[in-house]
User: What shape does this take?
Amino acid sequence: MMNEPVIWQAAAHLLAYPDERFWRRLPLIEEAAQPHFGGFLTRATELGPGELAAHYVDTFDLNRRCCLYLTYYADGDTRRRGESLAALKSRYRAAGWEPMEDELPDFLPVLLEFAALDPSGADLLSDHRAGLELLLAALTERDSPYADVVGTLCATLPPITAAQRTRAARLAAAGPPAESVGVYR
Assistant: This one.
């Protein structure tokens, strides 16, 4: 049986940039969630701090298909994304949770931290299932060790519905929305 809050908390840590704090906390993650993240933990250790950090930047910072900001998949860089970010902040505050100001509320590790602490977080993760599936597909295609983390996360959620699968396929085919407001031609 999976202990979703522990898995989500561990995944939040594993999907954060692998800085010194990441490596200091890794033994705790191994102890708490080893069976769920064994593949990632092995590959991360094999790569080591420098290579894992370079892989993280190459994967998440330089590749739009591997975006950890989940509203990007459905909203792209549009005004609608601003509304989605505000709605997420509002949901967090309504639950009595105040995310750190140095990160956007749709950053997957932030969503996972919230989900680990509040029962409504599972619904938030399910709301972003299409984006999670796109992220998983992109990470799997790149043979990234992070595919193990996102795959384990997806396994904690209810099975993907036909509607979510269709939405993911539509988003994959079209890419994130864009708008040209204020651009003169």
